[in-house]
């Protein structure tokens, strides 16, 4: 097992801890920050035993999949929530590089397709392949004694295997027929992150990130249902706004801005989100 940073990532000052097995790469990253690590630290593993997803959900990472977290230390107002969109773009760039000939059928649960390639981005933090979840992204943060903020950008990718007991479809790169390994994918991901982070430019390039993200957005222009806590709202996925909030156009013409929720496309949106 050998994780490596790309030459571009190394030139930009990123560092790496590679592991076979960890509890949680996000938890480990925040521990490093609290111990005084200056940031730009990747922690990567091929097995994660206590990982978690959004809203405390379990994110299982069996051996052979990729669990990677980038720990950053931010000072001042840098729109840290947008880093999830930087991560999604970086991962989709990496996937298109390691699987350039991978054919996927068109459509997201019967909805509209993205314009930008075979891997699509589901708001706010999933990467889809053929409409099924291939990867998830989780941001966690902690304030440091000097007033800075540590951000853990966690990325979990189904490389070798995917769960089959979820309430939504999931897939893996091997299931799709592409035999990349976690270590190889990580090296390309580290290069793509360095490139997209330069576009983000500590928050100054957020609009460029937003526009690039929209070219790969799953379900853009299609009927969606968004579950917000215990409520479900329906309408058309119109865009994301300048703060990367989900913009929903309801049937009555009203525009609704959504900061957090679970998005469902196509047939699920028509029937109702469970």
From TrEMBL:
InterPro entries: aa-tRNA-synth_II/BPL/LPL, Biotin_CoA_COase_ligase, BPL_C, BPL_LPL_catalytic. Its EC number is 6.3.4.15. It comes from the Bacteria. One of its GO terms (molecular function) is biotin--[biotin carboxyl-carrier protein] ligase activity. It catalyses: biotin + L-lysyl-[protein] + ATP = N(6)-biotinyl-L-lysyl-[protein] + AMP + diphosphate + H(+). It holds the Pfam family BPL_LplA_LipB. Residues 15-201 form the BPL/LPL catalytic domain. Keywords: Biotin, Ligase. NCBIfam families: birA_ligase (TIGR00121). This is biotin--[biotin carboxyl-carrier protein] ligase.
């Amino acid at each position: 097992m050998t994780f490596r940073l790309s030459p571009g990532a190394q030139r930009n000052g990123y560092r790496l801890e590679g592991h076979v097995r960890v509890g949680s790469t996000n938890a480990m990253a925040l521990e490093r920050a609290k111990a005084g690590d200056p940031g730009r630290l990747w922690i990567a593993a091929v097995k994660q035993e206590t990982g978690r997803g959004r809203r405390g959900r379990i994110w299982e990472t069996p051996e052979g999949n990729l669990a990677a977290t980038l720990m950053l230390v931010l000072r001042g107002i840098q729109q840290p929530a947008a880093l999830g969109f930087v991560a999604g773009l970086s991962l989709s760039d990496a996937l298109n590089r390691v699987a350039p000939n991978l054919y996927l059928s068109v459509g997201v649960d019967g909805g509209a397709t993205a314009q930008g390639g075979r891997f699509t981005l589901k708001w706010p933090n999933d990467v889809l392949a053929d409409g099924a979840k291939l990867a998830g992204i989780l941001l966690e943060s902690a304030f440091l004694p000097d007033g800075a903020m540590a951000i853990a950008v966690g990325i979990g990718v189904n490389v070798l295997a995917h769960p089959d007991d979820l309430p939504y479809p999931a897939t893996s790169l091997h299931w799709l027929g592409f035999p990349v390994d976690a270590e190889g994918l990580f090296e390309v991901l580290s290069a793509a992150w360095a490139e997209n982070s330069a576009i983000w430019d500590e928050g100054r390039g957020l609009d460029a990130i937003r526009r690039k993200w929209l070219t790969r957005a799953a379900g853009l222009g299609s009927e969606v249902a968004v579950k917000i806590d215990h409520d479900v709202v329906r309408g058309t996925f119109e865009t994301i706004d300048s703060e990367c909030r989900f913009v929903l156009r309801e049937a009555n013409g009203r525009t609704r801005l959504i900061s957090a929720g679970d998005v469902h496309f196509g047939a699920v949106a028509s029937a109702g989100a469970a």
